[in-house]
Amino acid sequence: MSQTTDAERAIDTYHQYKEKQSASTAREYRRHVRRFRDYLEDHTEATLWDCHSGHAEDFYQWMKDDKQYAPSSVRVAHASLGDFYSTLETFGTDGRRGFPEVSVSQDPTEHATPERLDGMHKSSKKDVEGGDKPLSSEEVAELIENVPTPTVRNELICRMLYQTGMRRSELVRVKLDHIDQERNHIAVYGKKTEDPRDVWYQSSLNWHLNRWIESERPAVFNAEDSDYLFPTRRQERMDEQTVTDVVTTAAENASLQEVVYRGKPPEGEVESDTGRAINRVGAHTLRKSFGVHFINDGGDISFLADLLGHDDIETTKENYLKYSTKDLQNSVRRHGPSI
User: Quick one: CA dihedral 101, 94, 49, 234, positive or negative?
Assistant: First the structure.
């Protein structure tokens, strides 16, 4: 079977898989993956299977400069490709669920980011006032009380994100043997990382873990054959998008959701209110809330950087100190040297 046929089959199968979750998202994601495939064919010697992060970033630049797509559309393209390659990693290795058996040398989105392109930062949530603002502890509690069904699983998802500061990509990769309930500790593995980092949680989480692991998880169709904490009836571990859907739906149910800005309207439409909504509350909001609440309660910024898995502490300072209510000036006056 040719690479072209393999690519089209993979894209069509991916669309069918995503369509079960959301028909509109499936169409949009397929459109971006096809656009990337066509870009590779027209502008490079690479294919979907052997392209790398340089190809992805060149594609984002081409979308922005040559095709005049808005930054928000470029970000959706990045999310689409990331989800496509994550799904291929799950099913394409051994050709399950109708996917062709393909070998992908690397996920080209793993080390590529639209944010490195000139002008992309202007429409990010960070630069819209209050766009990446964390939730208060009361709002987190309200969100958890309003999770969609299955409530036991989805409550645990939200509690784990908030108590540990994990990324959604890390949460879906947690295995049962990564959890040490005696120490309230989890070994966290990111995408394609061999060495974990350590996170800890409050002992109150163990009750929710046990309720899921002992009572609810065994009823999931693939549970017996999965090592992961969150298997689903379709596969051995949950998709990252499912985590986002759980949090955003809970936020909507709790009346906490708000649109920060809108992306490019669909083709043929010009109204600004028809573009894809970029919401304030998502899975990353619980990670942000963990970090800010940690600092506000007196936690050390360098410890937080380690807990969040930041390589550069400046990243932690830039993203978390601006929403801290901890009075740094008074802290220096109180604890700083006087000579």
Answer: positive
153: exposed, middle or buried (C-beta count within 10 Å: 0-12, 13-18, 19+)?
buried
Q: What is the pLDDT of residues 106-139, one digit of tens each?
A: 888 887 777 666 555 444 555 444 556 899 999 9
Percentage of the chain lying above the pLDDT 70 cut: 83
Bridge partners of 279?
A: 259
Whether 278 and 262 have beta carbons less than 8 Å apart is answered as yes
Partners of residue 180 on adjacent β-strands: 185
**Are the CB atoms for 54 and 47 separated by under 8 Å?**
no
Token pair 């909504």 is found at 277
> What's the pLDDT at 228?
96
The answer to whether the CB of 266 falls within 8 A of the CB of 210 is no
- What is the C-alpha to C-alpha distance for residues 70 and 47, in angstroms, rounded to an integer? 25
Give me the domains of the chain, ranges plus CATH numbers: 3-123 (no CATH), 125-326 (1.10.443.10)
Look-up: residue for tokens 């990693």? 89
Which tens digit of pLDDT belongs to each residue from 80-108?
A: 999 999 898 888 777 787 888 888 878 88
